[in-house]
Amino acid sequence: MKTLALAPFLFALTLVGCVSPPVFPPSPGPEPVPQAVIRVSAQGGNPTALRQGFLHGLSNGRISARTTSHLNALRPGVWRVSNLFGTHDFVVEQNLRARFGTKVTFNLQDLFSSRFGNPVVVGPDCLDNQPQHCFADYRSLRQEWSSFVDRFMLAAAERNGAGIDYFDIFSEPGSTLKGLNLEQIFDLLKVAHDTIRRHKPDALIVAPSIERFDGPGLDALFAFQLANGVRIDALSWHELEGSPQDVPAHIATARQLIARRFIDRPDLAPREIHVNEYGAPQNHLIPGWTVGWLAAFEAGGIDAANRACWPVSGGWTDCANGLDGLLLEDNDTPQPLLHLHRAWAELPRMRLVVQQAQPGLAVIAGRDQNHVALLVGRYGCGQNGKWCIGAPQPVQDTPAAPIDLRIEVTDLDRAANARVAIECYPNLALAGGLAQPQTRPEIIVPVVAGRLNLMLASLADGAACLVRIG
């Protein structure tokens, strides 16, 4: 009422030039939807070299025809196994190496731990409490480890290699081998290395498979390799903490250390980089986070990446069933990540350069002769930060507000309209089924002077979408 009464008076003063009128804020309205922009050129690009795959994830004997059909669509590039859940036998029986070129990585320490406990503990004080996990001293552990690796390699030779492409020596040695110093851990590495090479000189060896990236630790490992003639073919670590934004610095540091240390002995230098477990428990079922990891690995040019597996709500683990979060426990029912990984597997392999500035937004773009496709994902901590705080299993949180994403594609070699199809994969946060992706109505977008503009509206926090332009 006061504003209405004063309005004529203020207007009159303005007319005679006595004072300038005040500027009142507009009436409250709905909050504007945040926007982001990505730009993609449809020209140039390079084929991706990333082999994406899985860790354990399926127990033998619980595989249906639909499970096999799902795998056919995924075309796994690498599979890390130890037969803890029968997965190695499944991979061999399915003949994935011949059908898809799947590289099989066998983890020796997992198999050793299945017999001697996890963690394995060295020290006389632990024998009374955990005899199945304990060795009285390092010498007794070393002897058992040496015999184990020798027996394993003999058995692999009897099975004509047992379908193994990479021999992965350790499994998070910093937390699974207790009571050992770094020198002793490196010595176990050399024992395994020498035994493997004695049986199979051309074997490809993966190490150290540590829990997190550790530049100084890797530098110490490289110094040990040089001093002892140990050749590691694929350098490996896990990305189970932080976010995809941390990955570029890790990869760059690893490559710098390799270049500096092995300048005089390139024959001992790792030729590949594997992130052989990625994704934290609290966010590993969130599609947007998965796009973030895959985009970071592709941009870094690493060779192989395996999804991590974790316990999930309801008392089961997607290590034994569920393919690391792509299926439910029945190994049949799709979760959102199954559709996302299928979309990634079907992306044109020629990758395009994407320009984007907003943190927490990941885009992978590919093209072939007739199409451009973009896999878009949003990842963040949630309004309460729960998706970035360590937890033993997936957790729920309140998502941040949706955003509208403007996509600009240039250098299209067409002058007509383009059909755009969009399918999305929601952020359920917890384990849950999704029979089909969420599809949006197909739209026709004009292409003007080789340029296309479209809006991907309401991209939810943690969600991902596939945009096909053709």
Written overview of the protein:
There is one protein chain. This protein is α/β, with parallel strands linked by helices and about 475 residues long. It is built from twelve helices and 25 strands. It has helices spanning about 1-15, 65-75, 85-95, 95-100, 110-115, 140-160, 175, 180-200, 215-230, 245-260, 285-300, 335-345; strands spanning about 35-40, 45, 50-55, 80, 105, 120, 135, 165-170, 175-180, 205-210, 235-240, 270-280, 305, 310, 315, 350, 355, 360-365, 370-380, 405-410, 420-425, 440-445, 445-450, 450-460, 465-470. The strands form five sheets. It has an eight-stranded parallel β-barrel with strand order 3-4-5-8-10-11-12-13, surrounded by four helices. A seven-stranded antiparallel beta sheet has the order 2-16-18-19-25-21-22. A five-stranded mixed beta sheet has the order 17-1-20-24-23, with no helix packed on it. Strand 3, helix 2 and strand 4 form a beta-alpha-beta unit. The termini are far apart.
